[in-house]
């Protein structure tokens, strides 16, 4: 999807920004309620119910919650392992909440990392994510092929001493496109993924296949193309010996020639960005 | 008396209790936490000389001769004078004399540990003991239950454990014979014992044992006669430890099986385990490690006491309760991880580990694995930023301390300076990992002398310098150690595309084998690790001989992609390093291709030669 100029653009971005804020608000609220003994399933349900109460009817994907070494996807081999389990939260455990609600037709996909109690390692890893946020924006503005940017992120992670854990996602993606979804009375989900949003992604994949681009930003050859205009949910995910941290937020890419306008993060007022400070 | 070793600078005093005069020695400032060291059989307090000296700067160290030993007087009559109840009286008298207001930290070796178990499990010492470090001496009550369990519910494994410990206890049976042991000790055995035990146990030649040995040993026989039979046949059922216990187990002890302590966590609510690859007399053969562990444990307990509400008193009920909640809370996965991690933590906790090439790949992963086990890390690399990063993350995942050192391992002078600096600032290295290496590929006829020199300088000379300098420090200290050299499967798999690299690694493998033979005398183990294709950045920094820059870059990218597809993580090599160190393995191939090539090199070297002719798919 490309954007028309002017007020239409702003109003649409406002819609995305609103749902992203809503999702992050949900993550912060649920994270504050997590106590020892809460299971992943309970945490996922808390997110779902909180968002339902605020008018979310459709999803790109239902909320996920990962606790402990599951934040680093330790020993993940099958896609089913991503779904919430009965693992209970313990003091000192890291956790990640990940949700993709659709609100008034706009999709967001956010990831929130936290830790129950203080952990200097977790703090360090969260701080190290900042370099990735800057690197991705810089290289997208340079219009480098997505696959090369992926490899740059990979190299930075190795230099930092971490393992690339977004590699564990389907197709090893670091990001994927999101768009608007038509609001319908019935919005079914399949294996946690919303039918409407999946349809949109499939349509993009089909178009992209003909035109030589892909809505999935992966390490594979099909991502060997310059950044494509649209909204991308970017999710670099660091793993280190049983601890994983990530952020996920929307990156706006446009066809503008002005580097500042060609790519920017949709919102800079998010929990992880506030944490890093100005 | 007391010829040979002596306790330098010790203040002596006499403590009277129940008609006995005990000889008590004190070192260090009495304002510091008090550590009471209790010797075993047949020993006197001087057995602790080396350990006491190392503890004296931070602790008030108290040693005493057990009744009937050294310069303490013996009870009359001897029979019935050595019961655990009377030994408890002695301990309480000493504790009250040297530290009337504060509880003391107990450390026991051999029979000193056996009697200390009694002290920490009976009610009347409550409030007098803060912690207990047990070395090579079980509680007779726990031992009694251990035997009973193995006899009343025999399984093949339990029977084997029973017989194993039964065979190690031969001397206990001999000591039950009347009169003869006394005659032997006062006669020929007393004279020969020092040289016998020195040879069998590899003890240093420092004038120990003292001249009182024959009398000590003769009196001490009553320790066994007064206690062993009665306690083993009717062990107490309430022998729960009331204080935190640190158990140090020498893994090559000729007198005690490691299995003896398997059930201990049921008796001790707060148990810290340590293992040491050494024989029975660790206070004499490993004083550095033993005193470090005593100091760390004691200080940790002092801290727990001084923090308000730090430690509640522990009863058997709370023990069971905490264990139950812990069991339900810990998930299966975390428990599995903790279990697999345990032997490493017990063995490497607090040790000093130096890793070369620690800024990336296998070196970095190895540093992290040792850090997780609680070792102190020295991360050495040419890349300052990478080494600093390794040290920083090591501290975050469990290393009590970690430092980065920027050194090129091929630079002899720089390595010598490093060795001096490390010894002065961090201590003698316990475990050395020679990992730094560079890649060089290309046909022999196109490899320049400079390229040969570069690869040999790092891959071979780096290892030589490491072994030479740090191996010497280990040997001179005489308290064991371990060296791991990272060779490669290329050390035994010839290849037309890696002549220089393979040559350097084959040399490292042979060097490791020779060094292993030489250093085995000094209890220093040497292992060579031979990984196959492991996904590290060696491919992106490797040189390809005889091609231009563009081709160089292309080959690097291609090989990096190939290794990425193979995707064998360096963490698994790191695990092999820890395992090899723990078990003192000689040559360890890692990855299936490395194991396969090793098999072929033995049984079908012709196949390897044919593989060597293949063109790499780059």
TrEMBL record, chain A:
InterPro entries: Creatinase/aminopeptidase-like, Pept_M24. Pfam families: Peptidase_M24. Residues 15-255 form the Peptidase M24 domain. CDD domains: APP_MetAP. It comes from the Bacteria. This is M24 family metallopeptidase.
């Amino acid at each position: 999807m490309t954007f028309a100029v002017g007020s239409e653009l702003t109003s649409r971005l406002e819609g995305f920004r609103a749902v992203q804020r809503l999702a992050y608000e949900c993550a912060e609220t649920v994270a504050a309620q997590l106590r020892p003994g809460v299971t992943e399933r309970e945490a996922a349900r808390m997110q779902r119910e909180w968002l339902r109460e605020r008018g979310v009817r459709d999803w790109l994907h239902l909320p996920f919650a990962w606790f402990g070494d599951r934040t680093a996807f330790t020993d993940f081999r099958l896609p089913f392992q991503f779904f919430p389990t009965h693992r209970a939260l313990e003091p000192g455990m890291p956790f990640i909440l990940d949700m993709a609600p659709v609100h008034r037709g706009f999709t967001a996909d956010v990831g929130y990392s936290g830790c129950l109690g203080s952990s200097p390692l977790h703090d360090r890893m969260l701080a190290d994510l900042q370099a990735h946020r800057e690197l991705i924006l810089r290289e997208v503005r340079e219009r480098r092929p997505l696959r090369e940017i992926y490899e740059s992120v990979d190299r930075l992670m190795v230099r930092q001493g971490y393992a690339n854990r977004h590699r564990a996602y389907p197709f090893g993606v670091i990001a994927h496109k999101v768009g608007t979804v038509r609001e319908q009375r019935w919005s079914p989900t399949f294996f946690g993924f919303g039918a409407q949003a999946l349809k949109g992604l499939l349509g993009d994949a089909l178009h992209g296949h003909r035109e030589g681009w892909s809505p999935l930003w992966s390490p594979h050859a099909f991502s060997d193309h310059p950044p494509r205009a649209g909204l991308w949910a970017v999710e670099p995910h660091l793993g280190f010996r049983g601890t994983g941290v990530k952020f996920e937020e929307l990156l706006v890419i446009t066809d503008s020639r002005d580097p500042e306008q060609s790519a920017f993060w949709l919102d800079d007022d998010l929990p992880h960005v506030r944490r890093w400070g100005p | 008396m007391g010829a040979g070793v002596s306790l330098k600078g010790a203040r002596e005093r006499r403590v009277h209790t129940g008609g006995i005069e005990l000889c008590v020695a004190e070192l260090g400032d009495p304002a510091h936490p008090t550590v009471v060291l209790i010797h075993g059989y047949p020993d006197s307090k001087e057995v602790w000389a080396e350990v006491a000296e190392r503890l004296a700067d931070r602790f008030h160290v108290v040693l005493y001769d057990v009744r009937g030993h050294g310069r303490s007087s013996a009870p009359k009559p001897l029979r019935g004078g050595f019961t655990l109840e009377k030994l408890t009286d002695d301990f309480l008298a000493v504790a009250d004399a040297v530290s009337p207001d504060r509880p003391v930290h107990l450390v026991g070796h051999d029979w000193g540990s056996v009697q200390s178990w009694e002290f920490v499990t009976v009610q009347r010492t409550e409030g007098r003991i803060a912690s207990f470090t047990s070395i090579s001496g079980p509680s007779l009550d726990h031992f009694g239950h251990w035997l009973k369990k193995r006899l009343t519910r025999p399984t093949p494994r339990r029977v084997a454990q029973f017989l194993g410990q039964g065979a190690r206890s031969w001397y206990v049976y001999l000591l039950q014979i009347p009169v003869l042991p006394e005659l032997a000790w006062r006669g020929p055995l007393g004279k020969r014992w020092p040289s016998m035990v020195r040879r069998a146990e590899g003890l240093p030649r420092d004038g120990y044992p003292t001249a009182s040995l024959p009398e000590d040993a003769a009196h001490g026989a009553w320790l066994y006669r007064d206690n062993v039979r009665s306690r083993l046949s009717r062990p107490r059922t309430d022998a729960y430890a009331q204080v935190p216990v640190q158990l140090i187990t020498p893994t090559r002890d000729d007198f005690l099986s490691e299995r003896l302590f398997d059930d201990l966590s049921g008796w001790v609510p707060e148990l810290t385990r340590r293992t040491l690859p050494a024989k029975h007399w660790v206070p004499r053969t490993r004083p550095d490690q033993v005193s470090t562990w005593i100091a760390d444990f004691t200080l940790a307990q002092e801290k727990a006491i001084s923090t308000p509400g730090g430690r509640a008193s522990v009863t058997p009920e709370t023990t069971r309760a905490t264990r139950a909640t812990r069991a339900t809370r810990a998930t299966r996965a975390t428990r599995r991880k903790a279990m697999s991690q345990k032997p490493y933590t017990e063995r490497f906790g607090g040790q000093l580990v130096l890793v070369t090439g620690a800024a990336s790949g296998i070196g970095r992963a190895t540093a992290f694995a040792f850090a997780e086990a609680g070792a102190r890390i020295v991360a050495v690399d040419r890349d300052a930023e990478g080494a600093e990063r390794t040290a920083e993350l090591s501290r975050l995942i469990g290393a009590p301390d970690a430092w980065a050192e920027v050194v090129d391992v091929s630079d002899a002078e720089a390595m010598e300076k490093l060795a001096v600096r490390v010894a002065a600032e961090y201590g003698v290295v316990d475990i050395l990992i020679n990992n730094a290496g560079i890649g060089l590929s290309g046909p022999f006829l196109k490899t320049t002398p400079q390229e040969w020199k570069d690869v040999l300088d790092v891959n071979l000379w780096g290892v030589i310098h490491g072994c030479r300098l740090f191996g010497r420090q280990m040997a001179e200290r005489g308290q064991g150690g371990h060296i791991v050299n990272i060779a490669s499967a290329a050390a035994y798999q010839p290849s037309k595309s890696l002549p220089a690299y393979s040559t350097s690694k084959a040399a490292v493998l042979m060097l490791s084998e020779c060094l292993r033979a030489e250093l085995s005398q000094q209890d220093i183990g040497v292992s060579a690790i031979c990984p196959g294709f492991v996904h590290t950045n060696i491919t992106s920094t490797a040189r390809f001989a005889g091609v231009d820059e563009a081709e160089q870059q292309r080959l690097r990218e291609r090989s990096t992609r190939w290794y990425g597809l193979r995707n064998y993580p360096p963490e698994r090599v790191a695990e092999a390093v820890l395992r090899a160190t723990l078990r003192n393995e000689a040559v360890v191939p890692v990855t299936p291709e490395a194991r396969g090539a090793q098999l072929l090199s033995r049984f079908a070297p012709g196949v390897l030669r044919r593989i060597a002719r293949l063109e790499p798919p780059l």
